[in-house]
Structure formats: structure tokens, C-alpha cells
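Deliverable D5.2: sample structural annotation.
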Amino acid sequence: MSEAWEKLLPHLREMTDISSAIKLMSWDQTTLMPPKGSPARARSMATLESIAHDRLISPEIGGLLDELATDDSLDQDQAASVRILKRHHDRATKVPAALVHELAELRGIAYQAWTEARPSSDFQLFRPHLEKMIDLKKQEADALGWEAERYDALLDEYEPEMKTSEVEAMFSELTEGLKPLLEKIVAVSRPRPDLLDASYDTGSQEAFCQWLVTTLNFDTERGRLDTSPHPFTMHIGSGDVRQTTRADENDVMMAIFAAIHETGHALYDQGIPEEMDDLPVGGTPSLGMHESQSRLWENLVGRSRPFTDFMLPHLKERFPTQLGMVSPDEFYQAANHVEPSLIRVTADEVTYNLHLMLRFELELALFRDELD
């Protein structure tokens, strides 16, 4: 084994451990933490993120990466890990430590404000935090450097080397096809199925989702399902993948398909080989790659006729009053009912991408200083 690689390994393990601590604190904030703990939690997470940033940009790691970049003795995983870590290192060195700390602390505070603003749709409660976050992200983009679009610098973190112009072209073509398709579907759409407007006990929904994710082979010995204001999946560390769903007594489909969606993410994370736990190559190559797995399970599996037929009897056991007389045809049609809405999480397969494209247009306008 390369001597430089042996020297790098302890640094990789330490960065993994710090990252795991940050993720666990973030998971706790979204699921269990009392609201009044937000300021202290935001400060603690900012401290840890500053430490992680300091470790990543250290001259020692930079020197080892330079040495390893030309080391022909590395195997495929090691060489890929060096390439990925060098990319993260080079990006991080451009961002001032003070900005890293300020962004991290603001994220914690802004999240709590969002959880308070969301139930009452009180945008003014969240607005100052959003304004500050956008300002700081502009500063981050400028520190990273960009040529054609400020947005490019930030997009690169999630989809490496992809440019705003490429996303615009892709979304433009997709919009051209989706909008007329949506209009045609809505024009001939059947009335909204009654079962979608019935009331469903949230505790029973959560119990069904617990059963459902294990049926999809989510390993509860290496993960868990909880609830949060916004569904998410987080790979805390080796053998620890956390996912959440959200139950609404007036929308049984949301909890079900959010759970299937997040299980797609969770299965991806649980499928990463253990020997890659501390290696950069064991991370996610892009957000799009990860999202492809959640959308595959949610739509190609979850909304398929065989799967809705499979779920219905189990749902009837828990909700006999609401679903006892519902036929497999009716349930399948309800699971695939197309209807424009304001909430992405509850969006159907046709309108979901339109939510993403609208969000992209808004974000791009913000970072082009074309939108207040």
C-alpha cells in the first residue's frame, strides 16, 4: 500500500466521523429536538462544520493529495477517492472560513423559522432568513468563481461539471413536452377520487409505512423510519441510514409515496459496500443519480398496477371504513390521479418535474438579481 495513502486514511476516517456527528445533529433537529434548542444547535453545528472545513483544507491533506494524484500504485477505488477528495479540497480552499461558519449557523436558525412559518403559510416569518441565505450563497458562489453564470458555481456542488445552460436546455425541452400533455390529461381527467378526500388516522398511516419500507427490503437493523415536516433520507454513517415520511390525515397518498420515495434513497445508501464507508468514492456521485433511485421506486414501482394491487388489501386492514369498498381499479386510478398542486411532495408523476422546473427558474432569477 502506498505510504501517502496510509497517511491519508486517518484523515479520511476523522472527516467521516465529524460528518456523521453533523448529520446526526441535523437529523435530531428535524425529528426530535425541542424548538427552543434551535439557537444552540445551530451554533454547535456551525462549530463542527468549521472544524470539518479546517480539516479538509489543511496543507497536510493538500500535500498528500498532490502526491497521490500521480501515484500509479493506487487501485481503482483509491484513485477515484483521491480525485473526488481533491475536487472537494480545491473548492473548499476558495471559501472563507468565516463564511462557512455563518452559512452553517444560518441554516440551523432558518430551518427552525421555516418549521414555524410553514403551518400558517407566514412567509414574512421566513423571509429575512431566506434573504440572508441567498446573500451568503451569492458570496459563496463568487468565492468559488464562475464565468457564464453565478449559479454554475453552486450547481457544480450537486451535479459536478454541469452548467446552468445545460439544465435550461433540458428543462425547456421537458416543459415543451409536459405542459401540453398535462393540459390534455386534465381536460379528460375523471373527477377526483373520493378516497383521496377521506380522513385517515396518522398513527395508522405511520404504522403502515413502517411495514411498507421493510417490505421493500429496507433493513431496520441498519436504519430507521421516523416522521418530519419534510421527508428526507440521511446516511449518518456505517450501518445507520435514517429516513422520514410525513403523514397528513387528509392525504393518505402523501405518506405512502413519500415513504416509497425515501426508501429508494435509503436502499441506495444501504447498498454502498462497507469497505467504502470512509472513502470519498463511497459517497454520491451526484444528486441526480440519487434522485433517480427514489423516483424509480416511487413511480415505476410504487404507482404500478401490480404494486397498488399488492398494497390495497393491507391498507384495507388498517382503514376498512375509508377503503373497504374501494376496488383495485379505483385505488390504482387514485394513486395515479393527475392534478396540479402547490406542493411538490404530493405532486403526481406528470406534474412533479414542473415543480422542479419552476423552482429552477425562480432560483436562477434570484441569482441573476432579476427577482426580489
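Annotation notes: The mean pLDDT is 96. The chain is about 65% helix and 5% strand.
The annotation will be released with the project's public dataset once the embargo ends.
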